[in-house]
Amino acid sequence: MVPERRSGRIDIVAAVEGEDERIRSIASLRRQRERERRQQELARLRSGQERVVREVVIPETITVQELANRMAARGSEVVKTLFRMGVMATLTQTIDADTAELVVTEMGHRPKRVSESDVELGLEGTPDTEADLKPRPPVVTIMGHVDHGKTSLLDALRQTDVAAHEAGGITQHIGAYQIEVPGGQKVTFIDTPGHEAFTAMRARGASVTDMVVLVVAADDGVMPQTVEAIRHARAAGVPIIVAINKIDKPDARPDRVRQELLQHEVVVESLGGDVQEVEVSATKRINLDKLLEAILLQAEILDLKANPDRPAEGTVIESKLDRGRGPVATVLVQRGTLRQGDIVVAGTEWGRVRAMLDDRGRQIKEAPPSLPVEILGLSGVPAAGEHCIVVPDEARAREISEYRQRRAREKAALAAGAGRGTLNEMLARIRAGEQKEVAVVVKADVQGSAEAIVATLGKLGNEEVKVRVLHSAVGQITESDVQLAKASDAVILAFNVRATAQARELAQREGVDIRYYSIIYEVADDVEKLVKGKLAPVQREKFLGYAQVLQVFDVKKVGKVAGCRVTEGVVRRGAGVRLLRDGVVIHQGELSTLKRFKDDVREVQNGYECGMSFANYDDIKVGDVIECYETETVAAA
Hints:
Layout: H1 12-17, H2 19-46, E1 55-58, E2 61-63, H3 64-71, H4 75-84, E3 94-96, H5 97-106, E4 110-113, E5 134-135, E6 139-144, H6 150-159, H7 162-167, E7 176-180, E8 186-190, H8 195-203, E9 211-217, H9 224-236, E10 240-245, H10 254-262, E11 276-279, H11 288-302, E12 305-306, E13 313-322, E14 326-335, E15 338-339, E16 343-346, E17 349-357, E18 366-367, E19 372-378, E20 387-391, H12 394-417, H13 422-432, E21 437-444, H14 447-458, E22 466-474, H15 479-488, E23 491-495, H16 501-510, E24 514-517, H17 520-532, E25 539-555, E26 559-572, E27 576-581, E28 584-596, E29 599-600, E30 603-605, E31 609-614, E32 625-633
Parallel strand pairs: 1-4, 6-8, 6-9, 9-10, 10-11, 21-22, 21-23, 23-24
Antiparallel strand pairs: 2-3, 5-12, 7-8, 13-14, 13-20, 14-19, 15-18, 16-17, 16-20, 17-19, 25-26, 25-32, 26-30, 26-31, 27-28, 27-32, 28-29, 28-31
Helix pairs in contact: 3-4, 8-9, 8-15, 14-17, 15-16
């Protein structure tokens, strides 16, 4: 007998009694759904609408809606898939790459993981073949001491330009310019306001210049800034041509300049070296042709070439915000040809080149290699030294710009929250094998100390890691020293000298480590630990404050007492003190008294006056500075 089909509601008893039948019903329902799905697939195959399996690019983070777009699926489907995985998300919510990969796989597509930084891949294009390279004009930077005639020489060289005579002189100067010498060759000059800009560009990895013309006055000789210019040129790894200027003056002594340059390892050709030297006079226009010949000869030796038939790449020499024209950048084209209408990315900024102007203010349509041009049309003002690269479309330019801006913000946030761990970072890089040399800048109180430290450091190093002294000099640490250390990722070693307030602020801002010493062997120990990749010293000095000596009093039974005002930080009894005169340490010891009015106090804060005297030391003068510090123990990392 066939059982009757059940109809109507099911009560609890019936449900319990008919449990097996209910399970069979659910199983049959599943089979039915599977049949329907197969029939739909079959219908789709018959109609030619085969299921498309896409390769979905997944960055480090992505919104649900963007992920749905990349899979060509409805946003609600992606939300449902996430819900089944236990993730509650809306269309505008951001999910990580791992979750996105699971969703893509679940929905039957192929995931492709990429890093956020991949937007910059292939940006600089393919390397040039030898057949594509063509000769290009040399790029020359003129450096030297400020009063040695650098500007006069630049002006005199500009007037040798054949085209300038035809145009009635240069009407506009944009920080870099190109001249045509009588022989028909072209030379590009970069006009840097001192070596700071040169250093800033090198700090960003911009190898802009091919050679440096070092201007030295024949009547003045080698000056501190001349030495700094030599160090900067050496650190950049570019050849030097010495221009001995002002030879028309009665007290000119060119031979003395040659001898002084020997002390800084610049051996000119007349003394058997390989550095070209030319005696010139900018005001009397003597031997300017010989200087240009020397530049062209050096360019011939360097065999300078570039491929003009490719998308342009260059470097921002300088930039400004012009009230009428908006952001304006002076770009030196290094590879390819820059054309009006090209879309460029310069650092964190991007834009379409609306107009290009040469160094005479004339509009031009295209700029070949080694030509400096002003470009208009960028979204903002890029920093000097940033690379400027042509990209195929606006979408790519915007994507790169947004990524770099985000990275810059993150870097700034990290820098704001991080301490000065430069020495430890260098140790980590050496251990990782990333850094094969330890770069240092040495500043000392006397020349003998500086030479002794340099000689000691010269003996350090091994096959893996070398010690390189970028610069050594006498006197307090200046902003120039910090700039040089920043550009070369170096540590500043200060022996019985201190940094100026501006240099100290710059060092803190840029993360440059200044190490203070009063014993030479401690310098050697520290650097040797760097070389061997060992831990940083356990004892470390912590700066507390400065006090300026306003008056000096003679007090019976005590001796000389300095009436001081605390100008920075705090002065604390029991801490170590040093007496500084013109930025040089002349005494190191401890305080015997610290008073506010007539009361002994433990510490005095910034802005307050106090009385101080040293234990067993009386040579205190008005204008001296008292530095207060304490030694702290740092846990070995």
